[in-house]
Amino acid sequence: MLKHPLMRRVLLLMTIGLGWPQSSVMGAEPRTHWAFLPLDQVTVPEVKTADRVRGEIDRFILQRLEEKGLTLSAEATRTAFVRRVFFDLTGLPPSPEETQSYVLDNSPQADEALLNRLLESPHFGERWGRHWLDNAGYVDVQGLDNDAAIISNTENKWLYRDYVISALNRDLPFDRFLLEQLAGDECIDWRNVDQYTDETQRLLVATGFLRNSADDTSANELNRRDVHHQILERTHEVVANNLLGLTLQCCKCHDHKYEPIPQTDYYRWQAFFQPAFNPDKWLQPAARQLPNVSAAEKKRIEAHNSERDQQIAAVRSQIAATKLPYEQRLKELKLSQLPEPIRADTLAAVQAPANQRNEIQKYLASKFEESLKVKPEEVTAILSEDDKHQITERESQIATYAGQKRTFQHWQAVYDAGPVTPTLVLNRGDPLLPGQEVSPGMLSVLENHLANNPADLVAVGDSSGRRRALAKWLTNPESAAGSLVIRVRVNRIWQQLFGRGIVSTTDNFGVTGAQPTHPELLEWLGRAFVADGERLKPFLKRIMSSSTYRQSSVRNDEHSQQVDPDNRLLWKQRVRRLESEAVRDSLLAVSGKLDRSVGGVPVPVEPRPDGSFVVKKEGLATPTSAFRRTVYLLSRRNYHPTLLNVFDQPNLATNCSERSISAVVLQSLTMLNDAFVLEQADAFGDRVLKNGDARDVRIASAFELAFSRQPTTNEAEWCAAAMNREVEFHRQTNPACTDVEAENRAMIRICHTLLNTSEFLVIP
Amino acid sequence: MIAMSRREMLQTSALGFGSLALAALAQQSSARATETVGQRDHRRRTHFAPRAKAVIMLVQNGGPSHMDLFDPKPELTRRAGQTMAVETFQAGNTDKLMACPLEFRRYGQCGTEISTLLPHLGGAADDFCLVRSMYSEHNNHTEGLVMLNTGKIFPGRPALGSWVSYGLGSENENLPAYLVLRDSEGYNTSGTLLWQNGWLPALHRGTEIATSGTPVLNLQPATPVPDRLRRNQLDLLSQLNRQHQQQYPLDTDLEARISNYELAARMQLATGELLNLSNETAETQRMYGLDQPESAGYGTRCLMARRLIENGVRFVQVFPPVKPQFQPWDAHSNTKTENEAICRRCDQPSGALIQDLKQRGLLDSTIVIWSGEFGRLPVSQNGLGRDHNRNAFSTILAGGGFRAGEVYGATDEVGYRSVVNRVSVPDLHATLLHQLGMDHNKLTYPHHGNDETLTDSRVTDARVVREILA
Question: What is the average pLDDT score of chain B?
Fold first, then answer.
């Protein structure tokens, strides 16, 4: 009876005694828009098809399906399921051995064991870290990244990437994860400690979360007040977009036209971040980066180094003293070679400062200055054996002292840049038109005693404590703000596993956003996430153990198709194309070239004159660095390796909450002809050739590697036929080509063809 | 309603693209999926009869000096040396007005005054409308260029060409609707940022076409594959993909992927023919300055643009040379010598393109835009140069139903600000879409829960500048 999700919610609210909700969508008070309310306590529905229920999630999904006379599709095959789970948890396909061991495991715990194993894989953090890095807008570069050839790689920015990967691998609770990223610097008094610890590093590096807005103020002409404001604005707009699923940009200049967000809210939100990115006390990028040693340690290092410098200077002057008599002797010798009458005048001329020489002196200097100069090698040549020995010893002493000097690096962190200055509402968003002062505060539509308690706004050491207070408010799951943060988060997790969020507008939870397809499920998932300690791993396990996730994506059912053509109700799992990173990583996994090492400095990429971008081949950290996982490639805003670019790697002018998926012809051209793809195809072919001598064994091996399954009879025949034609071609056109060579070439081409299939590109 | 599969749609195309477009329109309601996939999107989103069907955008990046090239200011010469407070960008500015060191003359029957450095462009004065009252929003090149191309100063929004591709699709089955011709030696300022599809589907991204070598990246492998083997491979691929696709018969993405492999093969042939300039007469080649080393590069791109338009491409963007300066019109130190140098490279091909299109009867249906991202200041910088000025610049609009032989709008006496009949970049975009048959408020794309438009007129107040339409 109540078909519209909103109407269902109305019923729900009425039955639990909250009365008729005055949703803004219905033209009334915006505060009752579903997303702006605290997480609801919902009842798990009863369903008819109880045999398909593995957990509560299935009940919510089945209830909506049953209302429409629909059902879940059949269980996915085990080979499809293992592939799906591998991609979803690690971003990599399973190896034939891994597939085999799961498929042959008949125990009832096989699924759980598989999930557990993959959740503990170091590749889990790489996969889910990449999703979060998208949301945060992480890049390795500092500025807008306008020019292909200019790469402004920022020192140690990648430590934040590794922080995220490690946090996910450690399954850091989400509230803690947010606190560290928003205000790690306000969790400890790092300014006054004697030594930094690993914890100091982790907490300061975590704030790299807020260092992704393009900052070109290192160029003096862009080091201007309006640009400072822009950087501050982009920083906090991205946070709002990422965590609250709201677009604040619109209310910078005026009250939001579509959302219940007044202009003052924009500046109240800005006030949390202004002390760190303060246009009144702007720090250019070089000044903003933090030494990776404590202030006390830095002083000690400087004292230590200055001591060494003094020692070096002392030894240098000893060397100079030893050399001095030799230099004198040479000078006199050279002077004596000049005609006697001009000796004194020439000496006076070269000794006079160049700008004070008279005409004659200028002439003499130009004529003889060069020949009177004593060259270091001339001195060395006439040193006595003793002196020579002594100098050599002293030089090695200098080298020793220099080697004892200590250095330090920098981190890209966020911290308050001095005492707080007032945050002013800017008329029309113009820094030249400042208006009333505002204090930091939650968006008014989310404001309540839990998420705007002024008592929380207390200084931490030399820091205003504003971001710490914000983190506290945003991570309180009982508050409206905290509830929204959780909804946005669980919706994005759902989106990753099903290709579409319960709210399809993953970064618009406002009144103009899409209505959830399963409003109660979203509330329930939010509470389940909290119940799981806001830990991602048990939460993922919950979803991935459901029949809803486990069901097949293959289902050609006219009735379901007619009732729900867009499969919004999940009568089958959605087949999803791999993201750009997973395409490249899969190519490397299948070719056997993948370097699985974790973490570290980014692998450099470079532009080519033909307009392509590739991973650099020279000067790499290790010979296999070029084959590392894509998350470790240098991350730019606008210029991605061609392979990634054609597969929709997003431009990170700000951040990305949902990858767009396209099927354009450049993808086909790249998979057919790109040098990197061909290289992987060759390696894949070589691998297959080593896996057996018989053609059918090789074809089977190629399918196992590429698709985690055996070829069908048809497929095996088609491949064999294509190989026969190619072998015949080689025989006809190149008599020098042996039968074995022809067979091998044909096999390698089969491998390349498999990489070009649609099946290779999708999660089944 | 059951969405029609891409294959079925292509089968209906035997009746021509018109019916295909209708079929597509009929199923518009069903589909985010069909919205984001496929190499071809033939849906026409025109709202009224178009005056033009294609656009060539000659991007003149760097900030051409309007008061030295298009907008004579006798008062600036008279008041040279006097002080004036202006908003500057870089260091090295004085507050002293600097006279134009270059000559102007009247061109054509209309008598429009343009620099003597631009005889070829000036020679087409009777065929274009010169807008002297443009203004932009930012004094930095990137922001200015991003605005000129997307309507806003911050990156991430779709380019004008992407919107045109989205609105009109392509008339050529073998080529994308939006092509970009840049100097093979490198990118101009902001590079690929200027032809991004933003949140529009990726098939609307500008595709770079090289004027020599392999025209499209990865069109061929480094080591050629014999045709028979490639055909053999594609046949097997098609068998495998069709079998896979049978499991997902309604997935238009998979369907598009299959047809893309056929398109890839056709593209190889089509671009090869297109890029072969040898069937252009020597006279045509000379006309575009292909016989002179200074103008040959940009001239080739202008000539190529005409060939692409002839072949049904919707939107071609042409970029000027990147050497010695990747923002060639950026005359900070000597407005005279720097403009002399770049005009030698860019004037003849730009003028030739307009003339050539006219001779071939293509100018009526093709819009040619010649524009930089902003203008320059009336005060001197670094001695004899001029700094950036977002408050005023000039833009040329030829063909496609724009008034010919006209000047529209004016700057103040010294060229610092546009003051009469001011035209914003969103106004320009609204007008261009209008000439292509589209209402800028109705050409929308859903994003973040909003129906986004190119011009965002609710905020920018963009309007169609009807006064410059014939």
Answer: 88
Q: Are B99 and B424 in contact (CB under 8 A)?
A: no
Measured on CA atoms in the order A262, A263, A266, A271, is the torsion positive or negative?
A: negative
List CB contacts (< 8 A) between B251 and chain A.
575
For the CA atoms of B199, B204, B205, B210, the dihedral, rounded to the nearest 10 degrees, stands at 180
Considering only the beta carbons, identify the residue of A639, A653, A673 that sits closest to B154: A653
pLDDT at B7: 38
Q: Confirm whether the ipTM is greater than 0.90.
A: no
The string of DSSP letters for A310-377 reads HHHHHHHHHHHHHHHHHHHHHHHHHHHTS-HHHHHHHHHHHHS-GGG--HHHHHHHHHHHHHHPPPHH
Largest interatomic CA distance in chain B: 78
**Which among A246, A254, A253, A266 is positioned nearest to A511, based on CA atoms?**
A246
Q: What is the pLDDT of residue A612?
A: 85
Q: Name which of A286, A147, A284, A153 is nearest A227 in CA terms.
A: A284
Which residues of chain A have a CB within 8 Å of the CB of B264? 665, 668-669, 672
A488 by DSSP, 3-state: which? helix
Q: Which of A492, A665, A643 lies closest to A580 in space, CA to CA? A: A643
Tell me how far apart the alpha carbons of residues B144 and B152 are, in angstroms, rounded to a whole number.
Answer: 9
By Cβ distance, the residue of A257, A565, A668 closest to B2 is: A565
Sorting pLDDT into bands at 50, 70 and 90, what band is B27? very low
**Separation in Å, CA A453 to CA A172, A272, A423, A469, B113:** 26, 14, 19, 9, 67
Q: Using only the alpha carbons of chain A, give its radius of gyration.
A: 34
- Tokens standing for A327? 């230099």
Q: Residue A562 and residue B186: Cβ atoms within 8 Å?
A: no
Task: Please report the pLDDT score of residue A30 as a whole number.
Answer: 64
Please determine, for residue A16, whether its predicted confidence score (pLDDT) is greater than 50.
no
- Mutate which: B139, B240, B447, vs A, most A CBs within 10 A: B240
Q: Among A668, A717, A732, A734, which would you mutate to test the B interface (most chain B Cβ atoms within 10 Å of its Cβ)?
A: A668
Q: What is the pLDDT of residue B43?
A: 64
- Tokens describing residue A545: 């153990």
CB-CB neighbours of A359 under 10 Å: 7
Gyration radius from chain B CA atoms: 23
Residue in B166, B168, B201, B165 with CA at minimum distance from that of residue B180: B165
The pLDDT score that the predictor gives to residue B191 is 82
- Structure tokens given for B402: 């724009």
Domains of chain B: 51-218+279-468 (3.40.720.10)
**Mean pLDDT calculated for residue range A248-270:** 89
Total-model pTM? 0.84
Q: How many CB atoms lie within 10 A of CB A695?
A: 18
**Lowest-confidence segment of A125-139, A206-220, A655-669 by average pLDDT:** A655-669
Q: What is the mean pLDDT of residues A428-440?
A: 93
The rounded distance, in Å, linking the Cα atoms of B58 and B180 is 10
CB-based contact B162:B197 (threshold 8 Å): yes
Which of B:80-99 have CB within 8 Å of A?
89-91
* Rounded alpha-carbon distances, angstroms, from residue B176 to A616, B202, B206, B263: 30, 11, 8, 10
